[in-house]
């Protein structure tokens, strides 16, 4: 631990850049370079609704709920006209379902009335929708429009800090830090790879540092 701490303090920009390239290469070897989304969807608006629902809820739980939800509300217009209490009941097994149901209906109404039923592409238009912040907007931009974007969820925040790529706590500031140090062609992959790493090896409460293929590049390694 002493060696990694010393290395972190003395690391130059060139050394950090080289270390980041080694990290990205290791992630690519381990997880591949295919873009994938963990939320089941068939249309852009379904993904948007699923991401709104996923806040402080597991993707697995959201996928269970949307399996029936997207059959019942099989058009964007049906969501826009949904009864609030009924939709709350439909999604009650996920966290914060009162607010999420309200946001889903408001979001879908705006999609129908302001955007002609199309999920917008720009960060400004997306964040104008109810329940859509930068994280949700960047998920849409990356997965639907293949627009290079960095999604800062709990895994990305924790592990990016652990790897010494940011010292920030605020997700938006972390996003900008990562945009500065990561090559643009890996912005989307960073989220995909780091989520996988955080779920399987670098687990928040019990990191498996000894098993981690990034341990030699990680200043926060606990082994």
Automatic annotation (TrEMBL):
Per the UniProt entry, the Enzyme Commission number(s) are: 4.2.99.18
Q: Name one GO molecular function term.
A: metal ion binding
Record's cofactor remark: Binds 1 [4Fe-4S] cluster.
Record: residues binding [4Fe-4S] cluster: 202, 209, 212, 218
SMART domains from the entry? ENDO3c, FES
User: Which residue intervals define the domain HhH-GPD in the entry?
Assistant: 53-200
Keyword terms: 4Fe-4S, DNA damage, DNA repair, DNA-binding, Endonuclease, Glycosidase, Hydrolase, Iron, Iron-sulfur, Lyase, Metal-binding, Nuclease
Query: Which reaction(s) does its UniProt entry say it catalyses?
Result: 2'-deoxyribonucleotide-(2'-deoxyribose 5'-phosphate)-2'-deoxyribonucleotide-DNA = a 3'-end 2'-deoxyribonucleotide-(2,3-dehydro-2,3-deoxyribose 5'-phosphate)-DNA + a 5'-end 5'-phospho-2'-deoxyribonucleoside-DNA + H(+)
Q: Which GO terms describe its biological process?
A: base-excision repair, AP site formation
Keyword Lipoprotein among UniProt keywords: no
Nucleotidyltransferase listed as a keyword: no
Query: Which Pfam families does its entry note?
Result: EndIII_4Fe-2S, HHH, HhH-GPD
Q: Which cofactors, by name?
A: [4Fe-4S] cluster
- InterPro entries per record: DNA_glycosylase, Endonuclease3_FeS-loop_motif, Endouclease-III_FeS-bd_BS, HhH-GPD_domain, HhH_base_excis_C, HhH_motif, Nth
Q: What is the stated purpose of this protein?
A: DNA repair enzyme that has both DNA N-glycosylase activity and AP-lyase activity. The DNA N-glycosylase activity releases various damaged pyrimidines from DNA by cleaving the N-glycosidic bond, leaving an AP (apurinic/apyrimidinic) site. The AP-lyase activity cleaves the phosphodiester bond 3' to the AP site by a beta-elimination, leaving a 3'-terminal unsaturated sugar and a product with a terminal 5'-phosphate.
Spell out the family assignment given in the record's similarity comment. Belongs to the Nth/MutY family.
Name assigned to this protein: Endonuclease III
Origin organism is [Clostridium] citroniae WAL-19142
**What is the phylogenetic placement of the source species in the record?**
Bacteria, Bacillati, Bacillota, Clostridia, Lachnospirales
């Amino acid at each position: 631990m002493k060696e990694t701490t010393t290395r972190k303090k003395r690391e130059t920009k060139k050394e950090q850049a080289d270390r980041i390239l080694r990290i990205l290469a290791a992630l690519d070897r381990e997880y591949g370079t295919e873009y994938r989304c963990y939320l089941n969807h068939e249309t852009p608006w379904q993904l948007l609704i699923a991401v709104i629902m996923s806040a402080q809820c597991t993707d697995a739980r959201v996928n269970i709920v949307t399996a029936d939800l997207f059959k019942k509300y099989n058009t964007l217009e049906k969501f826009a006209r949904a009864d609030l209490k009924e939709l709350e009941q439909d999604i009650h097994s996920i966290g914060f379902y009162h607010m999420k149901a309200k946001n889903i209906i408001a979001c879908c109404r705006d999609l129908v009335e302001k955007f002609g039923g199309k999920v917008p592409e720009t960060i400004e238009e997306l964040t104008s929708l109810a329940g859509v912040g930068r994280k949700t907007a960047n998920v849409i931009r990356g997965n639907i429009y293949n627009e290079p974007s960095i999604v800062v969820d709990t895994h990305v925040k924790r592990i990016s800090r652990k790897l010494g790529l940011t010292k920030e706590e605020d997700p938006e500031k972390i996003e900008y830090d990562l945009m500065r140090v990561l090559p643009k062609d890996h912005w989307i992959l960073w989220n995909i790879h780091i989520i996988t790493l955080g779920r399987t090896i670098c687990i928040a409460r019990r990191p498996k540092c000894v098993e981690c293929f990034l341990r030699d590049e990680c200043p926060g390694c606990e082994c």
